[in-house]
Amino acid sequence: MCHLKKVLALVLAFACAFTMFASAAFTDQADIKATDAVDMLVALGVVDGFEDGSFQPNGTVTRAQMAKMIYVLRTGKSDASAYNNDKTSFTDINSHWAAGYIKYCQSLGIIAGKSNTKFDPNGKVTAQEAAKMLLVTLGYNAEKAGLVGSNWASKTNALADENGLLKDVNTSFTAACPRQYAAQLIYNTVFAPTVVWRDDAYQHTNVLDKDNQTVGEKYMNLVKETAGVLYACSEVEGKDYYTISTSAGQKTYNKVPTDVSELLGQNVKVLVKHDNNGNYDKAYGVYADEDSKILATGFVSGLETDGDKIKLDGTSYKFDNGYSLDTTLVYDTNKDTNAVSLRSLANAADKTVVTPTVAASKIKLIDNDGNGKVDAAVKTPVQVAKVTSVSKTSFSVKYLTAGVSNKTIDFDDAEVYNGIKKDDFVTIIDDANRASDKSLVEKLDVVSTKVASTRTNEAKATGTDWYKLAVAKDGRVSVTSGNEYDLVIVGGVIVDADETAASTSTVAYIADVKNNAETTLGSKDITWKVGIYFQDGTNDEVKVSKIGGTKLKDVASYASVMAGLKQQLVTYSKLSDGTYDVKLVSATNKVGMDWTATVAASTSSKNTNHDVYAVQKIGNKSVADDAYVFVDTAKEVKVLTGKQINNWSDEVNKLAFTSNGMLTKDSNGIAYVKFATLISQNNEKVPGASKDTLYAYVVSDAYKTDVDGEDKAAYDVWTGTEVKTLIQDASAPTVQAVAGDVISYSENGKYADEIKKVGTEAAITGYDKNNVTYRVDNTQNNVYTYELDDDCVFIAMNDDKNTGMEGSKDAVTTANEKTVSGVDYYVTNAYIVLNDDGDKIIAIVYDADDSKLDPENLFVK
Asked: Is-annotated flag, keyword Repeat (predicted)?
């Protein structure tokens, strides 16, 4: 192993374990909360596990077991048989396995019986009783310290707390003590200074005012050595312990009981047991120095420069004296060459060049002297790969970063998750960058989602977050706004994108087809005019020059084909000459969904016309809110969203709809309509949504955004259930909404229409399930009471931060009261929206944080 010979600026890479004592020695390790205590005391032989490989952390401790643990703590030995024949007043222990331990502890006054003759060795010890025993181990005389008699319990509590014995002991003090918290009590005792009686009081220091030896130092020869920076941690082949190297004298410590690679790059202390010559054979624990702290952790892709500071995940950190963006070097584990600066890592994280490796690699910023500034950093190199094949003994991967050779990995050489299979995406940490001698392979989640927006080298997906697009082995990851993908995201970077519905954004509806084709002089090519409706609700008369990529050549061959496009779903592309290439949606062109050409009649009892639509279902299938339904009556054609269809009244089925097909997609085993046609011969207008007005709380000022190369107005809002961006079909916001406003709007395809600022700032003074009383000003008749509409909308928010909050009808609160100059006032806490008739409340947008909008907007009580 190559040890790094640098000072704090010399930093190392993460290894994979992230727990101080992440030992996997016990089968129930995950249930152990007091991991440091259990692992150290197991290594010291103070506590043991069970033959079945478990530790049983929540099992309780007997009085006999506690006596044994204290004996080992005091003597460093496990055999107390030499004390078996000692005299004792206890009559119930002579044949007990723990007789020697109990007699030893009794002789020192550490333990007492239930009576003069009964010890009750198999009785459960409480945490309070255990603490009393350990206080005597520290040096307290039970009688002199008040640990006997009627007040022993309260005195024990006070002294145990004073001496730090109760730290992290998260259990009842008077109930039977769980094994792990008995270990925690002993662990705290090991590091507690012993006490001596001097000057009529117990003292923790000697006559020179130096700390007394700790219990560990006095009885077990345990010493915490200052070891400097932890350079390396490696598992010893074939053993259950590790070797570490540190900067102090280039020292190596052997037989470290657990993986401490979490501490790489930090100043550490090592717990060792010295023999009479000052030598030691093994280490019992490795601990971060008191001043050594981790400032931040994250992915390398989250780095950026901020002047002369380094920023990680949006937070900036200053450098310690002597360190900077250029002088704080980052090394990989076990290497002291090819170091890079934090500046170069931040540059590599830029969206123009970020690779999958940079995206997945991890970084840790360290402060080793307690001043809150960076003086060290640690990096874990991580590769991203796709599994290309799996056999019984190995698996092969294709790395996503250019320049990294694909490879086959034996299962014997790696820690691999269960169920690995072809086409999985994984992260791989090489064994060279771990304490273990095996590589770590972990599965990455694949997110199926629609890409909402794109901008240079970035895409918005999975809500409101923008993600960088990685420069991968096959080029930069490319996505198109509006299309659906299986995305692999790591470190805020999309490292792979598989389009799952490549043409969903190009599904359209041809309402009509001209009877005659158009020809061009001197050419056999023809075009055919059609009336086409797009998903955004717009329509146009366009010329079709190709069907499924094939040019239209003569009228006779294509007349029937073109006639067959009428009132059908198609996919389209606009060609460079302005004409269109269209293709019928069908079983062979179903854009990643399921196609139904013959839509079944509704089986609902309300379907008196036996048509395909009834009670908000098409062909007996539910309609997704984000679906597009092309509704064609003898009077007009409209493009409605699924949400609008779902708001239709039950009376709509009187239009006797037919359908020329629909596309569905499964979600949790249920097929939902995503695209459909509804056609009626009735000469009526397309019905609108009966309850299509929506409300939202504006979380940032309205702005312009780019949508498919055009400026559009955008409003970031909280709807009560999600943060979303409303796009208005206008080049700039027509409503100057600012953060904190309330707006109403309707949905028309992908756009928001009829956007208005609504709501009156109010102080709600009375509220029940059906009525609200509130005030809106200081006029004489300033008290209003209105009934809640049956469909009243409730939106919770934090007005101070302009953010949404979870809320409900039942969570609405009344206004706070405030007294100013002896006058009582109400503080506004909500926006009230009334219906058009002004007699019912249709929306309440309320502050769910502290029930205050403007603390200065007061209404007289």
From this structure: yes
| Shared domain check, 321 and 211 | no
Q: What angle do CA 409, 415, 417 make, to 5 degrees?
A: 100
Shared-domain flag, residues 185 and 333:
no
The H or E element spanning position 102 is: helix 99-107
Domain that holds residue 718: 694-757
HSE, side-chain direction, 13 A CA sphere, residue 178: 17
pLDDT at site 839: 87
Residues 457 and 469 in one domain: yes
Amino acid 17: pLDDT: 28
Q: Are residues 814 and 846 in the same domain?
A: yes
Residues 475 and 519 in one domain: no
Count Cβ neighbours within 10 Å for each residue of 438-457 and write b for 16 or more, e otherwise. bbbbebbeeeeebbbbbeeb
pLDDT, position 258: 86
Q: In whole angstroms, what is the distance from residue 411 CA to residue 407 CA?
A: 13
pLDDT of residue 279: 76
Q: Helix 179-190 and helix 127-138: axis angle, to 10°?
A: 20
- Which residues is 453 bridged to in the sheet? 460
The CATH number linked to 470 is 2.40.50
- Name the maximum alpha-carbon separation found in the chain: 124
Question: Concatenated DSSP letters for 160-224?
Answer: HHHTTTTTT--S-SSSBPBHHHHHHHHHHHHTSBP-EEETTEEESB-TTSPBPPBHHHHHH-EEE
Q: Are residues 302 and 197 in the same domain?
A: no
Task: Examine the domain organization and report whether 454 and 576 are in the same domain.
Answer: no
Cα–Cα distance measured from residue 208 to residue 480, given in angstroms and rounded to the nearest whole number: 75
Give yes or no for a contact between 527 and 516, defined as CB atoms under 8 angstroms apart. Answer: no
User: Structural domain tally of the chain?
Assistant: 8
Nearest to 329 by CA among 637, 686, 12, 590: 12
pLDDT of residue 15: 30
Looking at every residue in the chain, the average pLDDT score rounds to: 88
pLDDT at 9: 34
- What pLDDT does 651 receive? 66
In-domain check, residue 521: yes
| Residue ranges in the chain whose pLDDT is less than 50 | 1-24, 689-691
Tell me, yes or no, whether 719 lies in a domain.
yes
652 and 720, same structural domain?
no
Nearest-angstrom CA–CA distance, 165 and 743: 58
Q: Is 253 a domain residue?
A: no
* CB-based contact 694:719 (threshold 8 Å): yes
The letter for the amino acid at 79 is D
